[in-house]
Amino acid sequence: MFQNPPLAARDPDLSNGVQLELSLMSKSVLRKRAVSLAWVAGVLLIIGLFPLTSAVFLGLVLVCGVYDFLRNGLYDRDTIKKYFIGNGRNTWVLAPFNTLLDLLSRRNRHVYTMHDLPPAWRDDLQQVIDDAMAHKDEIIGYLDTRMAEKKRGMLFFQWYGRPIETTLDIPQLRKKLPFVKTIGVSVFNENRSTSFHFGPLRMMFRVLYNMAPAPHHEGVYIQVGKHKHYWHDDPLFIFDDTLMHASFNKNDAKRYCLFIDIVRPTLLPSVLNAVIAGFAGLVFTLRRVFYKNWKLIQ
């Protein structure tokens, strides 16, 4: 019996497109495997060079990592795999440092409201929100002209306390504040989401603020651990981003969100500010690595 040839065979352009997509997928898989192998090789090299120090550190990583993992409140196989050998492995390795930050800071609520923050933190954060919303139409228009078909975009005005020059000039958003260290705006195109992932460091907490009213839609939310926050309920969400989280925009409208990092509330803010400044000095030029899945807009 005669059968129609495969669609790809009848349409050379489609065939080329499929081959290109498969090629890009295979390159992505190979890249991820290469990164994993390099990570394992680096760990084994350090253990070989410094066996005693490595044994002590690995003990701390194991104990603190279990504590850090349990904070998520999700103990299924997928979460275990994601934390210990997936994209959470850097958070696991940094668990001793993050545990030390927990000891130096106020009790971690995981998810916060504005009223949970100390007055000085609230004042700085509200100032940033007010300044950004005063330029809302200008910011959204600027992002719209540069997004095209990209999945997700990010525009930074400052990162870890360091101002970033942008074509869109809003000096108020580059002004240094004691308790706000990162100011940016993220944009999700229609029907785009992130995968579940973990932030690496607990020096700061993440603040997200929807710049435009969110539709009353069950597919537009952020999930942190077991907690789901629907944007139509409240445009503001503050959380510890070292917990497993993902953002979802399952509707036919773009979502524009202020992307802010604040110093986590602590009795020793000067110490934490010094740690943040030191980290920024080390990795500022490599910051694109942290946002490799985003289109960074200047």
Automatic annotation (TrEMBL):
Which residue windows are coiled coil? none
Respond yes or no to whether keyword Transmembrane is given for this record.
Answer: yes
Report domain Aspartyl/asparaginy/proline hydroxylase positions.
Answer: 180-265
Pfam families from the UniProt entry: Asp_Arg_Hydrox
* Keyword entries, A-Z: Membrane, Transmembrane, Transmembrane helix
Any transmembrane segments, and where? Answer: 37-63, 267-286
Q: Under which name does UniProt file this protein?
A: Beta-hydroxylase
Organism in which the protein naturally occurs: Pseudomonas poae
The taxonomic lineage of its organism, from the top, reads: Bacteria, Pseudomonadati, Pseudomonadota, Gammaproteobacteria, Pseudomonadales
